[in-house]
Amino acid sequence: MTAIQVPMPASTAASITPAAPLAQIARDTRQAAQQLATLSTAAKNQAIEAIAQALAADAEAIQAANAADCEAALADNLAKPLYGRLKLDGVKLKGAIAGVRDVAKLPDPVGTVQIHRELDAGLDLQRVTCPLGVLGVIFESRPDAVMQISSLAVKSGNGVILKGGKEAVRSCQALVQAIRTGLSHAGVNPNAVQLLTTREETRALLALDKDVDLIIPRGSNEFVQFVQDHTRIPVLGHADGICHLYVDAVADLDQAIAIAVDAKVGYPSACNAIETLLIHQDIAATALPQLAAALTDKGVVLRGDQATQQLWPAAQPVTEADWSTEYSDLILAVRVVASVEAAIAHINTYGSRHTEAIVTEDAAAAALFRNQVNAAGVYHNCSTRFADGFRYGFGAEVGISTQSMPPRGPVGLEGLVTYKYHLIGQGHIVATYAGENAQPFTHRDLS
Amino acid sequence: MTAIQVPMPASTAASITPAAPLAQIARDTRQAAQQLATLSTAAKNQAIEAIAQALAADAEAIQAANAADCEAALADNLAKPLYGRLKLDGVKLKGAIAGVRDVAKLPDPVGTVQIHRELDAGLDLQRVTCPLGVLGVIFESRPDAVMQISSLAVKSGNGVILKGGKEAVRSCQALVQAIRTGLSHAGVNPNAVQLLTTREETRALLALDKDVDLIIPRGSNEFVQFVQDHTRIPVLGHADGICHLYVDAVADLDQAIAIAVDAKVGYPSACNAIETLLIHQDIAATALPQLAAALTDKGVVLRGDQATQQLWPAAQPVTEADWSTEYSDLILAVRVVASVEAAIAHINTYGSRHTEAIVTEDAAAAALFRNQVNAAGVYHNCSTRFADGFRYGFGAEVGISTQSMPPRGPVGLEGLVTYKYHLIGQGHIVATYAGENAQPFTHRDLS
Question: Is any Cβ of chain B less than 8 angstroms from the Cβ of A119?
Answer without folding.
Answer: yes
